[in-house]
Amino acid sequence: MKKFLEAGKIVGIHGLQGEVRIEPWCDGPEFLSRFKRLFDKNENEMKVRRARAHKNITIVKFAGTDTPEQAQDMIGMIVYIDRADVKLPEGVYFVQDIIGLEAVDVDTEEVYGKVTEVYQTGANDVYQITKDGKNHLIPKIPDVVPKVDINEGKVYINTKIIGGLFEDEN
After folding, report:
1. Are 82 and 37 in contact (CB under 8 A)?
2. Tens digit of each residue's pLDDT (9 = 90 or more) over 45-79
3. C-beta of residue 80 within 8 angstroms of C-beta of residue 41
4. 102-105 and 154-157: which strand pairing?
5. Topology of domain 4-84, per CATH?
6. Which phi-psi region, left, alpha or beta, contains residue 88 (left: φ > 0; alpha: ψ -120 to 50)?
7. Whole-angstrom Cα distance, residue 26 to residue 148?
8. Which of 165, 151, 150 is nearest to 99 (CA)?
9. CA–CA separation, 33 vs 127, rounded Å?
10. Residue 52's beta-bridge partner residues?
11. pTM of the model
12. Which CATH number applies to 97-165: 3.40.640.10, 2.170.120.12, 3.30.70.3400, 2.30.30.240?
């Protein structure tokens, strides 16, 4: 598993004190504003002096970035979080850890493909399972996906609930 996870992109400057506007690629601007440090692509730590959510972005003031010109040079930068800085509840995973898992039948362990995308719909996540160029969408609800095992590299699917979805594969 990756130690550093993409969390957002610096898309602009804010004000005259060197603050930047970050488009969050994580759970949202409130989540991103909780971090005391972020990282650049070279894994260099960037200390956060202050951060706050503002509409759909996060406004961040980094230590050492004190002018609009310094902030301007950061536009386009991807920022990362250290997974060690986040404590996830039981059964909650980073999207980046789900992508690439093998999708298998919960009863027979028949392989249906790999998770190639996770869509966050609001009500529940939807996993895109791809095999031989064909995509299938599976709702991430307990009856359909009773188990995710990151360590085994598998997502277990109850095909009895969604019968017929993978039958065209055989």
Report:
1. yes
2. 999 999 999 999 999 999 999 999 999 999 999 99
3. yes
4. parallel
5. Elongation Factor Tu (Ef-tu); domain 3 (2.40.30)
6. beta
7. 20
8. 150
9. 27
10. 59
11. 0.77
12. 2.30.30.240
